[in-house]
Design goal:
With 231 residues, this protein is of the alpha+beta class. The protein has 5 helices and 10 strands.
């Protein structure tokens, strides 16, 4: 690459970093479509899973300008009510489960969705041990952020040491990424919902000394915002 081209590239990176902060995130999966958290029955076929997987998955790359290198590649699938429904339909088809078995799996998964928000996360960073979210040497902390800026830490953070056929088939894991299962309570200690019924977005934030990477899901509120008396 010629010197002039390099200079143009560096200037572009400087502008991007100034606008976006320490890390520049680029979306590669999912999108900005507004998604529904409404716990209503769905009518999915096994072929619908890939579409629902893409809709509920976010993929970002964090770039550290000072070192001119990628610092974090992270992908997360929000195992929402809708994603769980599509997953069970696909899983039951792949394993030839009968109707009763599929119904029981679906019932258990949707019951869990009422108490727990789960995410399946894969990560690749420039240092393998520092990219292990469960390690004492982890360079990143992960929190869930609501659209009012309140954060909550995971109550469950488990590394998947040897992803099997299910993880590879349903979450498209490559050998170059570490996989984790994260869980957050659906309610805060004061009893309020972690994701409020009138929430417009939810963010899974990876933050540390090297910067911050946000994965954002735009949501359709399940209930309108409460009215303020006197307005």
């Amino acid at each position: 690459m010629r010197a002039s081209a390099v200079s143009v590239l560096v200037r572009a990176l400087v502008v991007s970093a100034t606008l976006a902060g320490t890390l520049v995130g680029t979306s590669a999966c999912g999108g900005t479509a507004v998604l529904s958290m409404r716990p209503a029955p769905r009518a999915f076929t096994p072929e619908d899973y890939d579409r629902l997987y893409a809709a509920w998955t976010r993929d970002e790359n964090g770039f550290e300008l000072s070192k001119l290198q990628d610092t974090l590649h992270v992908s997360a699938t929000f195992q929402s009510w809708e994603h769980r429904w599509a997953y069970i339909v696909r899983y039951a088809s792949d394993y030839s489960l009968d109707t009763a078995e599929r119904t029981e799996l679906l019932r258990a998964s949707l019951a869990d969705a009422e108490t727990t928000h789960r995410f399946f996360v894969t990560i690749a960073g420039h240092d393998w041990r520092e990219s292990d979210l469960t390690s004492e040497r982890a360079a990143w902390r992960v929190v869930l952020v609501d659209d009012r800026g309140a954060t909550i830490a995971p109550t469950e953070l488990v590394r998947v040491p040897r992803p099997g056929a299910n993880e590879r088939g349903y979450y498209h894991i490559t050998p170059f990424r570490q996989a984790f299962r994260l869980a957050f309570p659906a309610r805060r200690p004061d009893g309020s919902s972690t994701i409020a019924p009138d929430a417009h977005r939810i963010t899974l934030r990876f933050t540390g000394p090297e910067g911050t990477v946000d994965l954002v899901w735009e949501l359709e509120p399940t209930e309108p915002a409460p009215r303020v008396i006197g307005r």
